[in-house]
Amino acid sequence: MEDLAYRRDITKSYTDNLIGTLLAIFGNVLVSISLCVQKYSHLTLAGNKDPRAFYRTKTWWCGLILTCLGEGANFFSYAFAPISLVAPLNGVSVLTSSILGLIFLREKSKPKEFFRRFGLSFLGCIITIGGTYLFLTFGPNSHEKLQAENIVKHIVGWPVLLYLLLEIIMFCLLLYFYRQRNANYLAVILFLVALLGSVTVITVKAVSGMLVLTFEGTMQLTYPIFYVMFVCMVASVAFQARFLSEACQLHDSSMIASINYILSTCFALIAGATFFLEFNYEDILHICMFLLGCSACFVGVFFITKNRKRPKSFEPYVTMDMAKGVPTIHDQGLAIQPDYSGSFSYGALVNNDGVAPATLPVQHKHATPASPSPPTTKSSNLKMD
Q1: Which of 3, 62, 195, 285 suits 11 as a labelling partner, its CA being 20 to 30 A distant?
Q2: What would the pLDDT profile of 14-34 be if each residue is shown by its tens digit?
């Protein structure tokens, strides 16, 4: 009887892992598609010079709905599968975005040129798929009913208290150097995001697990720990979004995507192993193969994002005011030189005077009077010059 009950638990655990994995994959794919749809909406408005706001278009709302569905699937995936399986699956979003970018790329190129330009991304996709297979195959199979009593028991345990203490100290130190010492390094900002992300995955798994148990008939919403976890989840997500926004303003987005994925996944694995003891019943071989799969995903995502085009830095350019015939130089404004807009354009000379110009200082040797002036003698003119 005990052996039969153990087999039933193992079967249910595998089933829950499968449900959580499929939900996470489905959610990440939906999020990638939604971002492409919303980007298409913005590009269409800009290309057609449509004066409407982006939130008044159907395509943008369609993308928003897909985003909500995808994030909802990701949220509930934590209730069924361990953090160690769900967190690395964020690489599926990068993989899907890369594939969609290649599919919707409207450029005709020869196979040799195509592989020269996108060979690194193609290699990154293959490595990411192989790594995903490895960590899903050898990942932890632990499954625990996240009742309120179990969550409180985990929180008051000394490993979790020590982990939270070290995380708070590290977060405060990094925040001090970032705010007070102006250490605007990408690693500093993304370490802050990753530390908050470890809190996010813990709270998301706790909240989603208690919600699922409530839907199944075991009420968990009457316990204070549910609302504590919910507030911590909302706060950590909000601060993560703020730090990521600041990072995007200071650094390259492709580098942010790869480094943030690596750091956030590492801290999520540590959080899952410390808080929910996900690797306690795994042997060394399974753990090593799981880490090998995660490492392969890190390399694959790095290759995918490395091949993206980076925005060109701003270079001063000259424009011609056709009404006055005065050349002007722009030393601030757009990140790149504006494209041809249907008006005068030749090389670096572009008629795009919507940007506030700084007039070139032009010294006139012979000033032309704007209005008739009294006649003067030749000698007086020479003295004035």
Answers
A1: 285
A2: 888 999 999 999 999 999 999
Task: Give the dihedral sign, CA 189/195/200/205.
Answer: positive
Task: Give the gyration radius of the chain's Cα atoms.
Answer: 29
Give Cα separations from 353 to 66, 85, 219, 316, 362 (angstroms): 39, 53, 64, 14, 19
CB 300 within 8 A of CB 120: no
Ramachandran category for residue 217: left, alpha or beta (phi over 0 → left; psi -120 to 50 → alpha): left
- Output the furthest CA–CA distance in the chain (Å, rounded): 124
Distances (CA, A) of 295 to 28, 88, 110, 131, 298: 19, 10, 33, 7, 5
Three-state DSSP at 342 gives coil
Residue with tokens 């160690």: 84
| 255 in Cβ contact with 96 (< 8 Å) | no
What's the pLDDT tens digit per position in 337-363?
Answer: 444 333 333 333 334 444 444 444 544
Q: What are the structure tokens assigned to 376, written together?
A: 């003067």
279: closest CA among 299, 294, 262, 259?
Answer: 294
Buried b or exposed e, range 169-205, using 16+ CB within 10 angstroms: eebeebeeebeeeeeeeeebbbbbbbbbbbbbbbbbb
Q: What is the pLDDT of residues 273-318, one digit of tens each?
A: 999 989 988 899 999 999 999 999 999 999 998 866 555 544 444 4
Angle at CA 109, nearest 5°, toward 106 and 113?
Answer: 130
Cα atoms in the 13 Å half-sphere on the side-chain side of 292: 11
Distance CA 115, CA 23 (A): 33
Whether the model clears a pTM of 0.90, i.e. scores above it, the answer is: no
CA atoms of 119 and 144, how far apart (whole Å): 43
What is the three-class DSSP state of 46? helix
